[in-house]
Structure to design on (287 residues):
């Protein structure tokens, strides 16, 4: 039996009838987003360079019994030809347009200062920034077809808390690329608002993913990383899924140009408490 409360929640958060594309959707944050969208009823396309991984992920998600459905196929956003091919594939698969674009595909490159190569800038920026922008631009006609004033089309760009805070950890081009994603999100949000297309970014902290597997592959590593997060843990799949559903549903229809922190408080970390530490040290000396 449907109650007034459950009906209200369904009206706010349902994605039934929506069509979404998630780039890099086979693993990590992309897969969390894809599963969240499917759980809310959307038809979800996931694409990455590894078509077989996307197809396997789609099959696994579909076996969970959600009301939505997932389709996996190959697509490369790291170069101009790949963007054009992916956009054309999406047009073929979605002749009535696209409601949601999740720009998640990305790469990182870690090396020590003094040994960070020039190549790391070109490869990271070409995918994380140029590819993201170019795919969004290529799919604007499809997004415009589905956009309505009270039910906008949605673009969600995956940035990082490293794009907000001066944190590099040897990932200089990655951190700079994510700062660029946040700024580009605001520019596009301003330009597309009048067309009923919202553009927002997520700025996640640490989640278990392929990119962070070198430290989050097991529970011990996740606990160690989580100890450095103000909320004491790394992000969970439901944290990502819930935020994506919110931004892409009726509940988030009036939000654009935001960079939502999904970092457990890392986004508001500051320097050491200088005066409190000094006062405690002086008090100990006086005691």
């Amino acid at each position: 039996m449907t109650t007034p409360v459950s009906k209200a929640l369904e009206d706010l958060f349902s994605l039934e009838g929506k069509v979404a594309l998630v780039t890099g959707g086979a693993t990590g944050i992309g897969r969390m987003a894809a599963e969240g969208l499917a759980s809310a009823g959307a038809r979800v396309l996931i694409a990455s360079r590894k078509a077989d991984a996307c197809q396997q992920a789609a099959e696994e998600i579909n076996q969970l019994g959600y009301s939505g459905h997932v389709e996996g196929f190959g697509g490369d956003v790291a170069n101009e030809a790949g963007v054009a091919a992916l956009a054309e594939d999406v047009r073929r698969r979605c002749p009535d347009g696209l409601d949601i674009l999740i720009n998640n595909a990305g790469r990182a490159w870690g090396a020590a200062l003094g040994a960070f190569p020039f190549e790391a800038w070109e490869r990271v920026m070409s995918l994380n920034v140029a590819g993201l922008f170019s795919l969004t631009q290529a799919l604007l006609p499809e997004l415009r077809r589905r956009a309505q004033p009270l039910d906008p089309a949605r673009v969600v760009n995956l940035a990082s808390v490293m794009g907000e805070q001066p944190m590099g950890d040897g990932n200089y081009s990655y951190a700079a690329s994510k700062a660029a994603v946040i700024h580009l999100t605001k520019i596009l949000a301003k330009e597309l608002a009048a067309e009923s297309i919202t553009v927002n970014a997520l700025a996640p902290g640490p989640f278990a993913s392929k990119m962070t597997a070198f430290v989050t592959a097991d529970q011990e590593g996740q606990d160690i990383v989580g100890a450095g997060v103000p909320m004491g843990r790394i992000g969970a799949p439901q944290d990502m899924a819930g935020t994506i559903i919110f931004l892409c549903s009726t509940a988030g229809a009036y939000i654009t140009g935001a960079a939502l922190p999904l970092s457990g408080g890392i986004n508001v970390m500051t320097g050491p408490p200088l005066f409190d530490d000094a006062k405690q040290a002086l008090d100990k000396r006086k005691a």
The chain has one domain: 10-286.
